[in-house]
Amino acid sequence: MKTRILILVIFLATAFAMASPLTARADDGPVIHPVQRGETLVTIARQYGVTVADLMRMNNLRYANRIYVGQRLMVKPGRSSHDDGVYVVRKGDTLLKIAQRNGVSVAAIQQVNGLRGSIIYVGQRLKIPANNASAGGGQAAPIVHVVRRGETLAQIAQRYGVQASQIAKLNGIEDASLIRVGQKLLISGDPGAIKKQKPRGEKKFVVDISEQRCWRYEGDKLLNTWRCSTGRNNSTRAGRFRVQSKLRKAYGSTWNIWMPWWLGIYWSGPVENGIHGLPWDAKTGGRTWAGLVGTPITYGCVMLNDQNAKTLWQWADIGTTVIIKR
């Protein structure tokens, strides 16, 4: 009798555990980990089943050994799923892989998401058009990469999810080691289409700290004049920079804030400074510095209102010139 009761208890406990929604559901939101004493990026990465490189990319970290107790690190961007026509980008995804997986063209995904290139990031939510949305859509717009200091052909290929040999063939490169800073490399598309395109002037974004104003140029043509905010206590560095990273939103672990329409432009110690829209508190969701655009208020970045930041983000490419003057 006792044996039968014990078997029944075990059966009911197992059934309850299998049916429990608490173990079956995954959190849709990002997972944030507060750094504890003695922890390193290596131990945190092992705890959550991710890589150190993933943590550095998700938290915009330059150095793997510079984290501190209490720092809040995003360790998982949220659930990776394809739900209601929205796909959440996972590690290893490229636009080409996502397009092939969903039976649509790269051009169709670029169009519905307002993408000008092929750069995507883990956790990004992409709208996936219906299969017929790409019918007759033709080839995707040519994708061009401007070589930066220290880059190799292999690194560039890995970034775009293609083979280095493919880039070499498209650009007539016989020796992969002979690429130079500032060189424009065709990543995908028809080389003939690029030659047919009407040449545009160099893209340039100018920031004046003393005036708290910004100007967007294409060649000699002025496209916009905007109010902007730079760092308090003159913490924004003056100089000539280039856009070096591009994220739909970046997480500032030091202040536990999200910064939309992120364009990274230079490193300030272990953190990257850049251009972004109005931040919000990652815990409360409340907007930070709302109504203060035009006042030196940031921690060193350049801040625009959300609409202008989005316009700039969609227009600027990796390598776009940024000039900051006092």
SSE blueprint:
Layout: H1 2-19, H2 21-24, E1 31-34, H3 41-48, H4 52-58, E2 72-76, E3 82-83, E4 86-88, H5 95-102, H6 106-113, E5 125-127, E6 143-146, H7 153-160, H8 164-170, E7 184-188, H9 191-196, E8 203-208, E9 213-218, E10 221-227, E11 239-242, E12 245-252, E13 257-268, E14 271-276, E15 280-281, E16 302-303, H10 306-315, E17 321-325
Parallel strand pairs: 8-17, 14-16
Antiparallel strand pairs: 1-2, 3-4, 4-5, 6-7, 8-9, 9-10, 11-17, 12-13, 13-14, 13-15
Helix pairs in contact: 7-8
Q: How would you sum up this structure, described in words?
A:
- This protein is of the alpha+beta class and 326 residues long.
- The chain folds into 4 domains: 55 residues, LysM domain (Membrane-bound Lytic Murein Transglycosylase D, Chain A, Roll); 53 residues, LysM domain (Membrane-bound Lytic Murein Transglycosylase D, Chain A); 54 residues, LysM domain (Membrane-bound Lytic Murein Transglycosylase D, Chain A), CATH 3.10.350; 123 residues, L,D-transpeptidase catalytic domain-like.
- Strands 10-9-8-17-11 form a 5-stranded mixed β-sheet, with no helix packed on it. Strands 12, 13, 14, 15 and 16 form a 5-stranded mixed β-sheet that branches.
- The longest helix is centred in the first third of the chain and has 18 residues.
- The relative contact order is 0.11.
